[in-house]
Structures are given as C-alpha cells and as structure tokens.
Amino acid sequence: MDSTLDRKNEIVMKLLHYFITEQNYNPIILQGAEDEIWLENLESEYKIIRIVSGHVHNDEQLEFDTFKTKRVVKKIKRKTFTFDIKVLSIFTDLGDNVHLEKKDGIDSVYLYEADDIKNYDFVKKVFPDITKKLKFSEEGMRLFLKITSDINRKNKKDAEMVNDVFTPKKPYITYALVSINVIIFLLQVLFPKIMDMFCVWNIGIIKYGEFYRLFTGMFLHANIIHLLFNMYALFIIGSQLEGFLGRSKYTVVYILSGLMGSLLSVALHNDNFSAVGASGAIFGLMGALLYFGYHYRVYLGSVMQTQIIPIIVINLIIGFVSSGIDNLAHIGGLIGGITITMGLGIKYKSTTSEKINGWIISVVIIAFLFYLMMQHSF
After folding, report:
1. Who contacts 181 (Cβ-Cβ below 8 Å, separation ≥6)?
2. Is there a contact between 81 and 72 (Cβ–Cβ < 8 Å)?
C-alpha cells in the first residue's frame, strides 16, 4: 500500500471519528458514489459533510463534482423536508491547478494532512474543537483499531436509541381513552341530559363560568357514526404515537391539545354555539406526530410525504367544505399538538431551549385564546 493512500486513509479515518463520535453525524448510503463518504446531521449548521478521497485533477472536474453534489442535496431536501442544507466538502487529493471557493451553500477545504484544518477559520467557527480532536497519540494499526472501535460503539448506541423509540409498545392509554369515550357515549344514550350538561357551549362557559366544558366536551359524541369515526382515528394514530412519545407525554398532548381546540372554537364563534367530539384532541395527536416525524425525518421522511401530511390536509379540507364540522377545533388541536409536543420534547432529539420555547408559545396561545373568549358578551 503506497504512502499516499496511507495518508488519505488516515485523514478519512480521523475525520469519520470526529464527525460520528463527537458531532453525531450519521453515514448516508448513496448509490454510485465512489471515493467519497457522505455524513448527515440535520441539527448542525453543516447538515452534510462530504469526505472526498478521489483525485480531483482540475477546476472542470471540480465543477462537475459540485454539480453532482447539488443534485444529491436536492433529493435529500425533498426526503427530509429541509429547505436549507449547507454542505462542507473535505477534499484529500487535489491537483495543483484546482481552486476551491465557496459557492451555492457548499463550502470546500483541502486537507493534505489532518492538521491543515487549522487554516480554515469558517470550519473552526462551526467546530471549535476540531483541531484538537483530530490529534491522536496512536499510530498505524493501533490508530485504526481505536477509531473503528469508537465508531462501532457510537453506532451501537445510536441503534439502541432508535430501537428504544421505534420498538412497538402496548398502547394502554389509547385503549383507555377509547374505552372512556365508548362508556360515556353509552351513558349519553341512557341519560340524554349529559349532552346539555357537559358539551362545549360558549354561553355556559363564558356567561356562567362552566369552564369544565372545555374538557368534558371532547369526550362526548353526537351519534354512533361520529363516535366510530373518531375512535377509529384515535386508535390508528394513538397506537403509534403513544409508543413514540411515551404514555405520560401522550396523555398531556391529548388533553391540552383538546383544550386548545375547544378554546379556539369558543373564542371565534359568537353565536349560541355548542360542540362535542374528540376530533380536536385527535388533530392534536396528528400535530404531535407531525412534529415527531420532523425530528425523525431521516427515518419517517417518506411516511410524512405519503401519509401524515396528506391525512392532515384532507381532513382539514373536509372540515372546510362540509357543514356541521367544527374545523376551528381541528385547527386549534393541530396547533396545540405541535406546540405542546415541542414543550414536552422528543426523546433523544429536543434541546432544553426548544422545550422552553414550546411551553412559552403554548402558554401564550392559551392565554390569548382565553382572553378572546372572555371578550364575548351574551
């Protein structure tokens, strides 16, 4: 094995070790990509890192490399619902007449040795510790064994976290919610006055202070068809989401997004308005699933495109064009599901600042809707 190949392999190994174990990047499998490795971290400023070990002879070949990179990045944008992807291309073998420059969201560096990274301030600004982390006391086979061992350990940990989130779990809370709704419907049949006593009725809430109606109304249903449709949706969506979020977070999302749906509905209806149904809370679950799917879009990107988003859009359209459907509750629940889930956080993904922002937004929305609601007079 010649010295040039040894040099490039050492640089590539050190870079892989840094970006995978220190910066949480994950490899992307690309068909037809030779002598280059793509890494992805959608939470980083550089969402894509390219490590190119193939020889680039001249500027024309570099232009073609840039063209290919842009084409792949477009596909990644569509798959991951990411509108802005900044790329860092790291070259390890350039001809003397190749001129690197920043262009169209792609920054490029050339490393003859790993220590050359110190010459690129824009890289050190994003990765302040990279110069230090690319230094190793090990050499040769010892270096190779250390790097591969560390990367394998990191990949194993990541796989365990993904399995923890996506392994199917018994949706006991969903079973309980469906059961509660069915039992209450049976009670409605036996005692019809329950509907009048507990529905979301704006006069009762605003004029008589019966704020409990904002919650109780989400457990009542107008008829058997209304119940069956909502319970089917709750079972299908809830069975998945409960496992993704965990039982406590899932319960909070259901209740609070249902509350936000009721609040928006009452706040924007001025007449003697009343409503019942779990659809506001169910739209909250859809919003939570959308927010979860965005954070795990590497795994759920195609599902979001073909299932989650179309279901939300179709149901909102049905609500707008059909009479007798409280679409304001749907919209309020959807918004609530997103913001409440943001506040609760997504396991292994959300930062403390994101969760704080989620709760601030949720509290502000609830307070504003409550204020609008109380401005009505009867």
Report:
1. 219, 221, 227, 230, 231, 234, 278
2. no
Q: What's the rounded Cα separation, in Å, for the pair 142 and 122?
A: 31
Residue type at 82? T
The candidate with the shortest Cα–Cα distance to 23, out of 55, 48, 56, 1, is: 48
Q: What are phi and psi of 323, to 5 degrees?
A: -85, 155
pLDDT in tens, 342-359: 999 999 999 999 999 999
- Helix extents (H) in 103-246: 121-126, 130-133, 140-166, 172-190, 193-198, 202-206, 213-216, 224-245
Residues 215, 220, 223: CA angle, nearest 5 degrees: 160
pLDDT tens per residue, range 111-125: 999 999 999 999 999
Whether residue 126 contacts residue 45, with contact meaning beta carbons closer than 8 Å, is answered with yes
Place of tokens 């904002």: 214
* pTM for this model (two decimals): 0.86
Catalytic residue positions? 279, 330
A 10 A CB-CB count for 294 gives 19
Instruction: Calculate Rg over the CA atoms of the chain.
Output: 27
- Could you give the angle at the alpha carbon of 64 between the alpha carbons of 41 and 51, nearest 5°? 35
For residue 334, give the nearest of 286, 266, 366 by alpha carbon. Answer: 286
